[in-house]
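Batch 3, record 17
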Amino acid sequence: MKPAPFTYARARSVDEAIALLGEKDAELLAGGQSLIASLNMRLSAPALLIDVNGIGGLDGIAKKGDMIEIGALTRHAAAERSDVIAQFVPLIARAVPHIGHVAIRNRGTLGGSIAFADPAAELPACLLALNGEVDASGPKGKRTIKADDFFKGLFETALGPQDMLTAIRVPAATKDTRVGFAELARRHGDYAIVGLAASAKADGKGIKDVRLAFFGVGATPMRAKKSEAALAGGDIEAAVAALDLDPPDDVQASGAVKKHLAGVLLRRVAMQLMEPRP
Amino acid sequence: MSELALDISLTVNGEAVAERVEARKTLVDFLREDLGLTGSHVGCEHGVCGACTVRVNGAIVRACLMLAVQCDGATVETIEGLSDSGEVADLQAAFEQRNALQCGYCTPGMLTAAQDLLKKGGVPSRDAIREHMSGNYCRCTGYHAIIDAVEAVARQRAGEGK
Amino acid sequence: MKIAEDSPPVLSALDRPNSYIGRSVPRPNLHRLTQGRGQYVSDVTLPRVAHVAYLRSPHAHAKIVSIDAAAAKKATGVIAVVTGAELAKVMTPWVGVLTHLKGLKSAPQPPIAVDRACWQGEAVCAVVARTRAQAEDAAELVEVNYQPLPAVTNAEMALGAKTPVIHASLGDNLCFERKLDVGKVDGAFAASDAIIEATFVTGRHTGVTTEPRAIVADWNEGEQRLTVYQGTQAPHMMQNLFAKHLGLAEHQVRVITKDVGGSFGIKVHTYADEMATVALSKLLKRPVKFVADRIESFVTDIHARDHRIKAKIGVKNDGTITAFEIDDLTGIGPYSVYPRTSGIEANQVVNLVGGPYTCANYRAAARVVFTNKNVMCQYRAVGHPIAVAVTEGLVELAAAKIGMDPLEIRRRNLIADDAYPAQSAAGLKFERLSHHESLAHLDAMMNYAGLRAEQKKLHEKGIYRGIGFASFIEVTNPSAAFYGVGGAKISSQDGATIKLDAQGALIVATGVSEQGQGAEAVIAQCAATVFGVPIERVRVIMGDTDVTPYGGGTWASRAAGIGGEAAWQAGKALRGNVLSVAGAMLQAKPETLDIRNGVVVDAATGTERLPLEELARVAYFRPDTLPAGIQAELVATRHYVPRAWPFAFTNGVQASYLEVDADTGFVKLLKHWCIEDCGTIINPQLVDEQIRGGVVQGIGAALYEQCLYDERGQMLNGNMADYLVPMAVEMPDIECGHVVSPTADSELGAKGAGEAGTAGAPASVMNAINDALRPLGAAPLTDMPFTPDKILRALGKV
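Prediction for the assembled complex:
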């Protein structure tokens, strides 16, 4: 199908983008890998598309104190190639190769993925697992939103209709950082049937500060807090038993199967968390 | 100032192009309809099949998931350009020798994606080749011949001979 | 890994020097495809071409109460908005029935629905505009007032007393029924040591050709001629149908087929929206182009293989199969597709179950019922994947039950290689097959014993691998017994016209066409070999009804066996004509001469006498120098149709080796093998590649593909993210081998090979999964596709 007609504007700054977002039926165009597919199917038909790809300064990856700041316009491919990500955000380094395929990663952006918040996507779960935060700019100015407060519902985030996500910040990994990632998809690059992004900190022979973020199991990425506590206590079986997910059925798998697979992934990721960093 | 249609200037296969185009027109439709470059194909319009794969500013992209207006100032290369410049001549020859194409509809996308992998140098394993090509759908070959052809070219370029 | 090189020339009974038969010659049409210079229908554009978008019913079944197109007609760029009632004045409806499928019935189908939409996706209105985008914009403004009707969506209930009848004129929802009862089935079951019953379900799926369907129709009012660019597998058939339903003579219609982006049977059928596009061109007196997008393809391209088969096998402890019994139910769409009918798939299932085996006791019942889902019809390997899954699934279940090796039970029951000619229980006539030799070859090629040992070792470590097999027969080179006898204008014969041009090159016009199989190469190889020129001097013309001999096109794996034979005979005839002229010019007896490598030579010594270019120059430009009474006829046409056998059956056997992750239910395909006997092999690489592509389509059926519908008849996964087709990472390498049993029904002896891979792959994968799961106590899985969901449930994990 061809998109319904829309007007197009190139924003030269975040402020300009936000001002344009104030118009009726306006949407931001960043990577476009989800948006344009949706336009092509006429599943969405905005009146105005605001292209933010030309806004400078939004695509860097930098270490700022003990955080890594990633500009919202950073392409997945850039994150994949980044030494900073490899060294300081190993969870994202493990997750990015699962995002679609090379051609998708060359255009798709980290900010776009997190703002779109597909429940089966990898990066929102990574943000949640890392206890990260995002910067958003809106008509009332800038604010920072923590990951735990960001994902509200199906494709719904704490971003308002006139907000633009500008940066993502996650803690820089230290030698005590442990991460784990696993996803199950019928074909490489598909959205996950179920996935798990996890982080923790080494604590003597065990682990602490466990954060388990499942994706593909509900309207948003979901923390399994009871399982986190059990894992911190060193008991993998208890962690699996404590999994209190209730995934809905979808065309790829039933909720019961997703729940079972979540348990399988939990065991696999738990092993990853227990291993010291190479 | 937002517009329904815009003037864009870009380079396509080394040729300067200046056209007026509707904002809603995808890059692949622009290439096929406005420029007559029908070598890039439309297979799904939702970014899954890879038949529309082209290079924009040196990186492979889904031309069905980019708007033509986004390519103002960009360098776009399609299969026609990659072919006429000779850049993929060895890949084309290998594909033909090995019958790594049947109907040919996915082939421009396959060649463009394969070249993207082989540009990096080295000899990727068959599994690595399969992974890089995982975003390009073929219904005819079952992929085996394509993997053979890409692997053979990788070896040739690395000087391992046929 | 080396690229496959030419195999050394095969000395066959055909005995021509510099023979191309048996050589992996690269296809001549590949350069344009790798350069992006192919000409697919979607690339074709004509002056003043208009674009059509179809408004489609969102309901599976609904009365069309009214259509208000007033606003749409005023939209930018709109040329016309046309309803079914308006188009009915231009084009007559059609009925998909054939007389040899006794009792097959169907209602007339119009190009655009008139009073009623009968499936979600059926076109209810056409919007023609200057661009496709404008047509779609205007389509949103058309107001259709629907009155939803109850939809029939459950095939099991389609014949129930309380279920609404979709077409009142038909009386019920039964399209076709067939029963077969051969031998002494009940007695055979009673005498069995074990009886195994299973219900097989093959999931409805669809072709997903990489190029969607497209058509450009150009009615020229001045010439009173219709030219249609269409990616059809049967140009002459479509020529006949366009003429018939528009009230034209066939010679007023020209169908042109250039490059086709995949078909596999999808593009051999008559589609309402394509017929409507042609009718619109006539109505509007200008070219009209329709390109189906992927979303509408999923709900309009024919679906296939939606069957539920209750099946039973009897076996003795010594492995003798005593009887087969099946009860097949398939739910098609609301119309039998035209002109090949939607009864053929079930008919094939009945015909093919048990085919490779000696067992003489067989009972079958098949019912084809109408539902309000998308239409269903022939798709690659028609019926074979289902029949082979049922047969080979039962055979391996029987083997497991009596504790016999799955290859051993086959050895004890496959028709012996020296038992031909033979006939199956269902009455299929076999000229000569090689089941046992093929099986032995497979056993060796895959190192079966080694894999069993590996499987055992890994099982002890908690790694579960499975090995599964499928023996099969395949219908190829059909005679008129397939369609012609039923009244369809579908040609089973084919023709080739070969001429020598003024420079001594061969121009071959053939009635078969190609969608990637390599028919162009095969025809060139046949012509070059039999006539005696290097293949670079052969040009093949296909896909143009104005220019090619009347033929059937390419389907049912007929292009090489039938098209190739016609080219062979025409080449022989032309050689004879040329040698007559050469004899006159050289004052030699034509029978002492031959053509080799483009030169007329002494047959006995090979001494070169006269280059073809010279002969052509004289014949065309200096006939005054030829002896009186000599008229050079440098063109010859021959047609060929198989007469001795209704079908040229081929045989093969496949194996799948895979690993099942018992925690996740995921299947990893490790390797696949296929031994195929398709008679004389003209181009080994092309045959192997047909097998590989076919195997992967079969793997799609076994593991991934299914058109999911809800109870309201809404397709739930009609896009490429949710309908899963095989992609590169998950597919195995596929090793191919061959046995050669030529057919005597043609000089070439070539049978077909295009569908063998798809016929056997689903069964072999299914059997391998069950082989892996059996030691874990899982109940056998017979419900395709085998998703992680189903595997986990079989293992009791969910």
